[in-house]
Design goal:
Elongation Factor Tu (Ef-tu), domain 3, rod-shaped, OB fold (Dihydrolipoamide Acetyltransferase, E2P), four-stranded antiparallel sheet, six-stranded antiparallel beta barrel, 14 strands, 345 residues, 44% helix, single chain, 5 helices
Length: 345
């Protein structure tokens, strides 16, 4: 009887302990599960595949004018300096236009100088002589007219002769007046409007000469900056058109190289600007090239760098990361070389 009583008393106590334990266990398990969800397990080093590329994008050079290529002055692999000629078009017509524009400018300057200087002393002397000659001719015609009129009144000459002498006298008088007006105009110098017109003609000729020289310069293709010729895509004799422009050559500055690496979406939180890392390439074995994370892009995209690992996922979204070499590599790294960037987490 006593044992039965103790058993009945212990039974509710055991049930309470069971309920308390069962209530606490799910809560602790949920907390541990939530903590596990927020903690992302990463390896100590992330390996991001990438490719070598110049710090500045390669530039495709094309002509701004149309014509036929007469010279190609570089080949693939040649180093060029800023402003160095790369190719030339046939420029005979462009040179002729420059020569014509230079002649037109010289002519405009001569007319402007003539307008500024005004008439010479010899011109004034000649004008005075013309006035004197015209006045003498007018006096002679006037005397002839007076004689004809007297003879006409006496009936010695016909009326038609009198009329003709009168007309000739009036013409001579008008010519004398015109000569005198020209002399006065020369003596007063060139009009201001004529000088201004001559100055405007110089400006117009100068602008046309500048345009002709620009057109001539467009027949020479020059390197915009120092770099290396990566590809040449034209030949001598090829016709260049502006309807479908084609690049003649592609150049890039290979003295400043970077690696464009691709970091998987799940690992982007472990990457930061200024982070130290190193890069390797199969072509150089175990050699490590020290690099630093220089820039991060702000848009996820598709993976473009493929490796030879058949287990690698190709549908993963990645973030492009630009890493720069801490020192200029002492070996030639070709553009497009596949490298692996090792980033510590």
């Amino acid at each position: 009887m006593t044992k039965l009583r103790y058993f009945l008393l212990a039974l509710p106590l055991a049930g309470g302990v069971y309920l308390w334990a069962g209530h606490k266990t799910p809560s602790a398990s949920a907390a541990e599960s939530s903590s596990a969800e927020h903690a992302v397990a990463r390896p100590p080093t992330l390996i991001a595949p990438g490719r070598v590329e110049p710090a500045r994008d390669p530039v495709q050079l094309a002509f701004e004018a149309q014509g036929r290529i007469s010279e190609l002055l570089v080949d693939e692999g040649d180093a060029v300096t800023a402003g160095q000629p790369v190719a030339r078009l046939d420029d005979r017509m462009a040179k002729a236009r420059v020569a014509a524009a230079e002649a037109a400018l010289a002519q405009a300057k001569a007319r402007h100088a003539l307008a500024l200087n005004g008439p010479r002393r010899e011109d004034l002397d000649a004008a005075r002589a013309e006035v004197a000659a015209a006045e003498a001719a007018a006096a002679h015609r006037g005397a002839e007219q007076a004689r004809s009129e007297q003879l006409g009144k006496a009936g010695a000459v016909a009326t038609s002769v009198v009329d003709a002498d009168g007309a000739a006298a009036r013409v001579a008088t008008a010519q004398a007046g015109a000569a005198a007006a020209r002399l006065r105009s020369l003596a007063r110098g060139t009009r201001l409007e004529v000088i201004q017109e001559a100055a405007a003609a110089i400006q117009l000729a100068t602008a046309e000469l500048d345009a002709a020289r620009v057109a001539l310069d467009q027949h020479t293709l020059r390197a915009p900056a120092a770099g290396l010729v990566l590809r040449r895509t034209a030949e001598v004799g090829q016709l260049v058109t502006l309807m479908t422009p084609r690049p003649v050559a592609t150049i890039a500055d290979v003295t400043r190289l970077e690696v464009r690496a691709e970091v998987d979406e799940v690992d982007v939180a472990a990457i930061r600007v200024g982070q130290k890392a190193f890069a390797t390439a199969d072509a150089f074995g175990d050699r490590k090239f020290p690099v630093t994370v220089a820039r991060l892009t702000h848009e996820l995209g598709r993976k473009t760098v493929r490796d030879d690992d058949p287990r690698a996922r190709v549908d993963t979204r990645v973030l492009e990361v630009m890493v720069k070499f801490d020192a200029v590599p002492d070996v030639a790294l070709p553009i497009g070389l596949r490298m692996q960037v090792h980033l510590g987490t």
